[in-house]
Input
Amino acid sequence: MRHLLSAADLDRERATALLDVAEEMAATQAREIKKLPTLRGRTVVNLFFEDSTRTRISFEAAAKRLSADVITFSAKGSSVSKGESLKDTALTLQAMGADAVVLRHGASGAAHRLAHAGWSDVSVLNAGDGTHEHPTQALLDAFTLRRRLRERAGGAMGGALDGVRVAVVGDVLHSRVARSNVLLLRTLGADVVLVAPPTLLPVGVGTWPCRTSWDLDAVLPEVDAVMVLRVQRERMGGGGFVPSAQEYTRGYGLDGRRLRLLPEHALVMHPGPMNRGLEISAEAADGPRSTVVEQVSNGVAVRMAALYLLLAGEDAA
Amino acid sequence: MSAPDTSTAPAVLVRRASLLGGAATDLLCEGGLVARTAPGGTLEAPAGAVVVEAQGLVALPGLVDLHTHLREPGREDAETVRTGSRAAALGGFTAVHAMANTDPVADTAGVVEQVWRLGREVGLVDVRPVGAVTVGLGGERLAELGAMASSAARVRVFSDDGRCVADPVLMRRALEHVRGVDGVVAQHAQDPRLTEGAQMHEGDVSSVLGLRGWPAVAEEAVIARDVLLADHVGSRLHVCHVSTAGSVEIVRWAKARGVDVTAEVTPHHLLLTDELVRGYDPVYKVNPPLRTRADVEALREAVADGTVDVVATDHAPHPLEDKDCEWAAAAMGMTGLETALPVVQEALVETGLLGWDDVARVLSAAPARIGRLEDHGRPLAEGEPAHLVLVDPAARREVDPSAHATLGRNSPFRGLELPGRVVATLLRGRPVVLDGALVPGAEGSGMTPAAGAHG
Output
């Protein structure tokens, strides 16, 4: 694997292999000494043009636990904020001997450009590009889902997510998490339904490999997991997408009443950070079926697996 | 518009050219005019005449571009009147309309005369400035259209291209105002509110790429409004670069109703689709955006049935750094002067939709008529101005932007093999391109022509 830019870069075999490696990585994280020598001498640059403390820390921890040298480059206060281009930043990183770049950028396709514009030959891992994709988030969601469902099935489950029914609820239009999840979950055989008000579903969503619905109450009784997306407050009211936060919560917020519409075994997921009281209530976020905290810790294992496969090659897997 | 004195230039005999794709014909050009035409191989070259052997070449009247960005004044790093004129001549054009979105904006008689003079100094094509509709393209106050019309540049086409004249009252006034100078408002139809931050065509591909959409309705709604306004005030409207099947339907309806409307389509909208954006290469970023295959098919049909009158390049050169970046940061626009004819041949001639006589109509006669360029777009007949282009339709070449004369390297046709090669271009009987290259010495040095050289 040369780059990880989109969840579509992973076929079923690669996706399950990556989740399997992540399981191994997670096992090492239960040990007293968490650090592996795997990427000793390799340099991973976290290049963050957007603030994202959680994702940045998760990637930092993943790279450090694989013994890579980690350079974190945040756009704020750097030459980038003085107008340096993505291209020049890429050339600089190349000159400094970076082996992989973990890129978070506000422009959709920025990771594609960094990988394919001919500026440098480093491996690129997309850590979120605009409203396009966030493949490691989808991987950690799938990992979390697979783990929980395997526990429940007592191990009687394959490496994928065949037939698992997942609802993704919220601002699909602006969500890179939704795009990556639809692609990856479909690759793994799951059945995805997107639930959002019509204003927050993109024109063209009909061609995506999933179903859509405007009716959360109708969807909830038939799913194995519900993924709640973060909804930006600025989309409400003056933003024009939804008349008000209250209107959104009434239609699409996961509250106690809706929690009880779910089958007993169904999971509640959220990529964080949560707007409690807007898209998810405390009862839903903190209940026993919530995987929110687990998703965070699984994020490190999944990112270790992604960096490992990117830099140590999949033959070694 | 008349031109530098050509009476001392040597005669040119074009031998055995296929006139508009038809019979082999000899054309003798003298004194800036087509002096004689005769069946192929029957004319003797006068003493001292330049002889151009044109067997197998198609002769067309010199092409006229209704929509060119020459960037000068202000963005000479992107293009100049000189480099753009070279590109135009090499592409078979003998006249181009230079868009008004320069810096300063071409919204006064002074700026349009400056551009016009620069064009005459270079002397490879006739440069006809387009005047801005509103001051500074600001969309708030009408520019002095009358002053630009009566200037030496004799502006007849007015456009805020790049921006839409969105205010309906202002558009109405502009349409009314140009009636008095036999002008036309060339509208860049784009509802600004529906396209805030828009990056590409809104549809299946944009949904996957997470790029903000530029919906077809944002173009179509403005065209619908404008044809009704033009009808209401009895004025002449030209619609720039229509890009959607819906726009075609509206223009077709308006023409059937008798509205005095004309429309243009770009070569890129006749060949390329939004599928190309999947790699996020900004060379495919343009406004209006590349649309779907169904739109491309509708646009081709519209040229064939006359609903769309003109193919115009929207040649929009940009410096490398404005395209060598992430998609959202990149400039919109594509070069087009040196690829227009090959693309038209590929999309419209080889598909059987147009004959070469139709090509002459959409790339020469119709744009000249719309721009009121009296001595361009004329038939290749005795007594007519000797603007002509010779095309080798059998040639096929891979597009190599680094070999182009434009300063812009942003050709979306890069790497495509396209048919057709411009072999020669004659401006008022004077060869400016021969054997596919600029004729040494054809280009003016930058000295202003002698006073009295123009009428």
About this structure: Chain A has eleven helices and nine strands. Chain A has a mean pLDDT of 92. The radius of gyration of chain A is 19 Å.
